[in-house]
# Entry
Amino acid sequence: MTTAISFENILTDITDGILTITINRESKLNALTLKTLQEIRTAMDSAANDAAVTGIILTGAGPKAFAAGADISEFAHFTEEQATRMSADGHDVMNSIENNTKVVIAAVNGFALGGGCELAMACHLRLASENAKFGQPEVNLGVPPGYGGTQRLIQLVGKGKGLELLLTGDAIDAQTALQHGLVNYVVPQEELLAKSREILMKVATKSPVAVSKVIKCVNDFYRPNVNGMQREIYEFGEAFSTEDFKEGTDAFLNKRKPNFPGK
Ligand code: COA
# Structure
């Protein structure tokens, strides 16, 4: 169970089947140490294998930051070898979030900069509070982004705006992020978690089999040398032998609400 694992840098809570992970380093604006990222991964992997969890929210402690980046004090003296390892491990964490079979929402409650922006972009959906700010300021530190920012930012906002943000290091506010498709909704801070839960509760009424297949197919669009159309044909066909499909079609034909077994 996700709740049984004890963590140093994150808080976890499961309510109504929704796992909320809170990055809990408020005095450091929730800057991401290597350990913090691994804890997030452990909590999410555990949720993926926990039938009681239907969705995941990732947020930051306090009113100011989701995460203000990778922890600069931790990596400032890294060697080239250590930095390469840091980036590769970070990519593994981000990929595992992106490939989670449960829907992951980033509830961005303030600064999402550098690694914080990359973490939010690895989630399936992003909701922002009105005070949220997004940016990839790594060029100010003498490095490019290292947790997938150069790839996911342009996937989400397009090459033109993405390159501008990556090259200038400028941060954008929540409304601008909404305008460019970086976030799905902007809401007052006090409504951020409730709106995230509302979306996850809606997804929880759908077929878990179909939801996880949608995630796989969409992710395959962005994988080099993988044919997303072929993936869709495969996943569509395979779904027909699942109990979820039998339940969904039977419920429709008998004019009742489906109750999906999730297999
Ligand atoms: N890594 C390590 N510590 C960080 C951090 C980061 N990415 N971001 C913030 N902190 C720490 C600060 O060092 C400070 O710690 P201290 O109180 O022990 O000195 C604390 O969090 C509060 O930050 P502070 O800078 O005082 O807050 P602010 O409101 O004046 O500024 C920011 C907020 C986000 C603009 C500023 O903290 C900042 O630019 N952070 C770095 C952003 C960045 O470059 N991220 C990419 C990293 S790859």
